[in-house]
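subagent[fold] <- orchestrator: predict structure for attached chain, return tokens only, no commentary.
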Amino acid sequence: MTAAPATATTPAATKVVSPRREIWLSMRANKGAMAGLIVIVLLILTAIFADFVAPHSPVEQFRENFLQPPAWAEGSTWAFPLGTDDVGRDVLSRIIHGARLSLIIGCIVVTISLALGIFFGLLSGFFKGVVDIAIMRFMDIILSIPSLLLSIVIVAILGKPDIAKAMIAIAITYVPHYARLARAAVLTELSKDYVTASRVAGASTRRLMIDTVLPNCMAPLIVQATLSFSTAILDAAALGFLGLGAQAPTPEWGTMLADSLKFLQRAPWVVTFPGVAILVTVLAFNLMGDGLRDALDPKLKR
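subagent[fold] -> orchestrator:
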């Protein structure tokens, strides 16, 4: 009697997870990052549809409703859910439109500073020597000056304060952070075998910079950009508070704080709600940035 042949057991196929899905799964496991992401998505939707969401125009004045308290206060009305300011403008409508302006400020500042930082970081990392020393010492000089003070000086040099000059000033103060980070990433990548192989294959310096090295340096730069987004919003609000950013009647959160500070004791809501908007937005971007850093850095993955 012959024994029945043994049936070979085939192991279950290993499921391959794409890098993007792996990042998403890591982010989803981080409750703080997901909370920040949800708030950011809501902010973006609010900014896009501000004209439809806001109950009133951000500059419309209701002169019979000066310093109207929030709707839940006694003697108030739901026509102005968060009350009105000292000239009768709806606080909620101004905060909603201020979200649009704050997100635009963050996008422009991060885009300008990231582009310049990558440019200087690539030059410094590839050419070394005198070029590296000159660029890095210049970045050290910028970093030695407090960012807010440097932004004030730049706005003063550029002329009459407005939101565009404030964005340029803030972007300049952020360039050294990206330049140093890009340089460190470039130096790390240049020592790897794939870069050596590209050199041997005859790749030009420009091709090495843009096509070979830069894509592998983007992970830390993306994380830094996410974290800088919140700082840019905070710095723009600080400049607006000092009168060096957006000018009245522009609905910018820092300007709203500056205009209403004198009513802090009489009408605290005109100061509280713009401050809460800044707090929630900055906290959301910081939480998402921390989660993104953990997801992109293999050393921090659980």
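orchestrator: received. Logging for downstream: The radius of gyration is 25 Å. The domain at 29-300 is CATH 1.10.3720.10 (MetI-like fold).
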